[in-house]
Amino acid sequence: MHLSVAVVPAPAQVVVRLTGDAGQSTLDRLVAALTRAAGHGTGSVVVDVARARFDDGVGLLALARFSDTLAAAGRRLRVVGAPAAVRRQVTEGGLAGRLELDGPLTGQDPVPPRPRPGGSPAARVPTQREEPRRRPEPHPLHGRDGALPPTVPFVLDRGR
User: Do the bridges between strand 44-53 and strand 13-21 make them parallel or antiparallel, or are there none, so unpaired?
Assistant: First the structure.
């Protein structure tokens, strides 16, 4: 799995853009990026997850723990760009009270995927009356085998 991370500081906030798989195998990269973002000392850290996947839920749990750490220091974490699948994982994983998302927890993706050329029935976009077929997902926090992910410590004053 691969995770690409960009940390973009600004005067009032730091934006962390995630692209790829944010899971157990990329947890160290995610934690390092979040710690680096927190080190800028801004009141707000924004994590853009529009292009990230959280298949095993470990990355979402890390974000929730990071949010808890920031909140204890009087700071804030906002998660933006979360597609419907990630919003479902947040809800099903019981993280809705710990993660601040930029919209409702339920609903469809902001931009529906385009149908493939040829317009075959399998490629068309469902209408509002139809429910898209959903394949079962592993539990967002425990994965397929039910094992709990490791604890992720966050230290905000690392250099002091």
Answer: parallel
